[in-house]
Amino acid sequence: MSAKPIKDLSKLCVHTITTKPWSLEEAAENYERVGVKGISVWRQYLGGRDIAASGERLRSHGLEIVSLVRGGFFPSVSSKTREQAIQDNLKAIEEAAALGAPMIVLVCGADPGQSLVKSREQIKDGIEKVLPFAIEHGVKLAIEPLHPMYADTRSAVNTMGQANDMAEAIGSDHVGVAADVYHLWWDPDLREELLRCGRNDNLYAFHICDWMCPTVDFLNDRGLMGEGCIDIPTIRGWAEEAGFSGFNEVEIFSDRHWAGDQKEFLDKIVESYYKS
Amino acid sequence: MSAKPIKDLSKLCVHTITTKPWSLEEAAENYERVGVKGISVWRQYLGGRDIAASGERLRSHGLEIVSLVRGGFFPSVSSKTREQAIQDNLKAIEEAAALGAPMIVLVCGADPGQSLVKSREQIKDGIEKVLPFAIEHGVKLAIEPLHPMYADTRSAVNTMGQANDMAEAIGSDHVGVAADVYHLWWDPDLREELLRCGRNDNLYAFHICDWMCPTVDFLNDRGLMGEGCIDIPTIRGWAEEAGFSGFNEVEIFSDRHWAGDQKEFLDKIVESYYKS
């Protein structure tokens, strides 16, 4: 099944980290100006602000708040650090509720000092510990599988299959999966696992950007849609086949793009979005 | 099943690229001096040499030639480039036979200008085209799955599962798999897929090094065994459980280690090998 061609910006969401140099207010004004309809807010952009008022302000710019980014980082060899992670995730849930964000994206974490199996147990345990508080606050939790190159310190959940396994093992209508083409494009089981995710009503989010060839930095060299080698329309088609009808969230970390004029960059995001 | 503790160097093989600054002759002399028993030869080290005589010389240093590295790179959007790859692989087979190497490691390749599915078809087609020549020369072909971060240009085969699928689909006793902990350590299905590989007599090679935390370069920042976060003894245990009894091949690309004294580096390889 091919993706439906993108004809308007009604499903375009941009992550605040994508236009890293802008404050939350600058991002909101500029996103509205070019017709972006959704915003995913990285927590650092809320620093020193009245969070509820910030939420109101974003909505006054015609922006739907899609998610708060990011919770997670549950595993550690230190029980004290694990407890701190729980506390931080509870705080994130309060922030999401105050902001009016319906979902938190979880970068699950990993500790190179222990096995990936152990880290995965601690991730599941951490999610289950904060889940009642999330349900109480009406906030959903989206497990984001990260590319295997991040298995050392950022996430022990590295494929859609693993994220599906974990979401299904937890079995709550408040725990699902955020799928990002950057992390998942290489996986031969991706279509099948997206469909499985959809069948279980677990496909909560869809993130887009591109894989540069060559990629020169492990973190901050993502590309605009079309700059790299990911066949985004095909993967978006699979997400739609799986029943996903939410926002297409542009999440680009790029030293190269951040170094330039952010207004020009945002124009390019809109232009490349139509081809994604 | 735990790995058997390493008690001697009888199964230690070093890839010539590991001590990149040394010529083939310097590598052979130094490997012998510290007790290394196997050598895998990268093709560039044969440049300008009588290959059969080089093989004799390596053996005179007490070194068993484990593999020739590397063939592959079959996929391309260009049919001319694909044909050139076939010719180059035929040449590699001749080189392996002349050197007395029983196996060629295949870095299968990928072309970002086409789908991974297409690249995989071209890999299978390429292997099947050169296979009769390989059988005639008594040379085996080992498909090496590469880490998903190399799916853009280096290999469309990124997991043991995919490598097993391909080896089994080709179904020849001259086509198997080379397993490298650096590429595979993150995979939740690794044990199961190594066992499957062993059951089919397809586990041809086992490569070791370590994943640095953080890793600062996509290609040339691999670590000595123990420098990073890979649990090598556990994975080696799985390979042994799968029936593997060949050499443990040290294959480290490291600008950091290459910049230092190679004799000291080789001493560290031997030291860290006992812990791997």
From TrEMBL, chains A, B:
UniProt keyword Isomerase present: yes
Pfam families xref list: AP_endonuc_2 (PF01261)
Recorded GO MF terms: isomerase activity
Domain Xylose isomerase-like TIM barrel, residue spans: 33-267
UniProt KW keywords: Isomerase
Coiled coil: none
InterPro entries named among the record's database cross-references: IolE/XylAMocC-like (IPR050312), Xyl_isomerase-like_sf (IPR036237), Xyl_isomerase-like_TIM-brl (IPR013022)
Superkingdom: Bacteria
The protein, known as: Xylose isomerase domain-containing protein TIM barrel
Species, as recorded: Cyclobacterium marinum (strain ATCC 25205 / DSM 745 / LMG 13164 / NCIMB 1802)
Organism classification: Bacteria, Pseudomonadati, Bacteroidota, Cytophagia, Cytophagales
